[in-house]
Amino acid sequence: MTARELYFISGSPPCWSVMLALEVKGLAYTPRRLDNAKREQKSPEYLAINPRGQVPVLIDGDITVCETLAVLSYLDAATPAPPLFGTSPIETAKIWQSICDCDGNLREPVGQISRPLFRGKADEFIDQITGAAETVRDELSLYETMLQDNGWLAGDSLSAADLIVFPVIMQLLRAAGRDDAAPLQLAIYPLADHFPNLAGWVNRIEALPRYANAYPPHWK
Ligand SMILES: N[C@@H](CCC(=O)N[C@@H](CS)C(=O)NCC(=O)O)C(=O)O
Predict the structure, then answer these.
(1) Confidence class for position 2, pLDDT limits 50, 70, 90
(2) Which mutation among 41, 52, 54 tests ligand 1's pocket best, with the greatest number of atoms within 8 A of CB?
(3) Which domains does the chain have, with CATH numbers?
């Protein structure tokens, strides 16, 4: 057992980002999985840890950190290698730009696609899904161009940008790859058919040595 604990919900992209960061830095932790179906994140015990009732939360000894980016920053400051936020001003700027782009332009439209599909309500939300897919394809095209000459989203090495964007893309693929998404012709899945550079980037992340440890338990 370690003094480091991570409260998470399986399949939550922000939680997956933190888990990947822990694995990339080789940091052991005790996973504390909460059951969203039982609303365990709203229990009095958990609200005492995070009054917002959200995950991820990292506990490191007597330190409690809420919010994904705060956790990534904390981990990077506490364990600098490998660096997640760059080693030069321009690298740091590019990483933050990519994170802001994802949070401002990709995360919500991916949610607009994945939420109804995961609930089996594709028919009911067809306009929302196809409209969001258009926005998402535009964003993925930008990634596709960026990854033409670069292995990673914000420079020559893996960074927090990759760890933030990757779980969002995986959530998208899980939704777009469902049988009930096929008739909608979202032109996203299989990724390699539509965005081959992005598919190569996904493969690179999946090949990280401890990748499997962070994979959402209920997706296995
Ligand atoms: N800004 C927060 C957002 C975290 C968030 O949205 N967490 C979701 C899981 S993806 C959650 O806790 N949902 C449960 C709830 O709100 O009850 C962060 O990045 O940490």
Answers:
(1) low
(2) 54
(3) 4-78 (3.40.30.10), 89-219 (1.20.1050.10)
